[in-house]
Design goal:
Strands 2-1-5-4-3-6-7 form a seven-stranded mixed sheet. Helices cover 41% and strands 22% of the residues. The chain has seven helices and seven strands. About 17% of the residues have low confidence. It is globular. By secondary structure, the protein is of the alpha/beta class. It folds into two domains: 33 residues; 146 residues, 3-Layer(aba) Sandwich (Glutaredoxin).
C-alpha cells in the first residue's frame, strides 16, 4: 500500500518532466505554441493599447525591456526595427515593464526612453508602451540575460511565431524579420 501511494505521488512529477523534455526536444517554447494573451498598456503619448486586438490583423513585434541594464540592447533593437521595412508591414512596440520598479513615474520613464533614443519623438509617443502591471508581459519570454531584450513576434492572426530573450545581432534581427513576414 505504501509503495502504491509513493508511485501515485511521483506520477505528476514524471509527467511534468516528460512534458518539459518534449518541449525542449521540439525546440518550441510554450509561448511560441500559443496565441498572444490579452495585454494592455499605455503609450508614452497617453493612448491605451489592447493587444492583440489593436494589431488589427497585422504582424506584431514587441520589444520588452525588463531591466535598466537592457537599455543599450533595447536601443539597438528599436532603432533598427522602427526604421526598418519590418515597421512598415508590422506594428512594432517597445514595452517598458515597470512592474517591480518602486517609485517610478511615467515622466521618469519618458526621460529614460528619451535618453535611450529608441526612435523619433513621434515613435516614442506612439510606439513605446509602459505598464506598471507585469502580469502577462513577464511570461511572454523565458527569464535570462538581464542585458538582453525580450522579443516577441506574432503573425497577423495573433499566433506567437517567435519569443526569446536575445541580444541584438544581425543574425537575431534576420530571425525576427523572417518571423514577422
Amino acid at each position: 500500500m505504501k509503495d502504491s501511494l509513493m508511485k501515485l505521488r511521483l506520477l505528476p512529477r514524471n509527467i511534468a518532466f516528460v512534458l518539459a523534455l518534449a518541449i525542449a526536444w521540439s525546440g518550441t517554447s510554450p509561448a511560441v505554441a500559443a496565441g498572444l494573451p490579452r495585454l494592455e498598456a499605455d503609450t508614452l503619448g497617453g493612448n491605451h493599447v489592447v493587444l492583440p486586438t489593436d494589431a488589427a490583423g497585422k504582424p506584431l513585434v514587441l520589444l520588452l525591456a525588463f531591466t535598466k541594464e537592457a537599455q543599450a540592447d533595447l536601443k539597438s533593437w528599436s532603432r533598427k526595427l522602427l526604421n526598418d521595412r519590418v515597421a512598415r508591414d508590422a506594428l512594432v512596440y517597445v514595452v517598458v515593464v515597470a512592474d517591480k520598479t518602486a517609485f517610478v513615474s511615467r515622466g521618469h520613464i519618458r526621460k529614460m526612453v528619451e535618453r535611450a533614443a529608441v526612435g523619433s519623438k513621434e515613435q516614442m509617443n506612439d510606439n513605446v508602451l509602459i505598464t506598471f502591471n507585469g502580469a502577462g508581459w513577464l511570461t511572454l519570454v523565458p527569464p535570462g540575460d538581464k542585458n538582453a531584450v525580450g522579443v516577441v513576434v506574432c503573425n497577423a492572426s495573433g499566433a506567437v511565431a517567435y519569443a526569446k530573450r536575445v541580444r541584438f545581432s544581425d543574425a537575431n534581427l534576420a530571425d525576427v524579420e523572417r518571423a514577422a513576414k
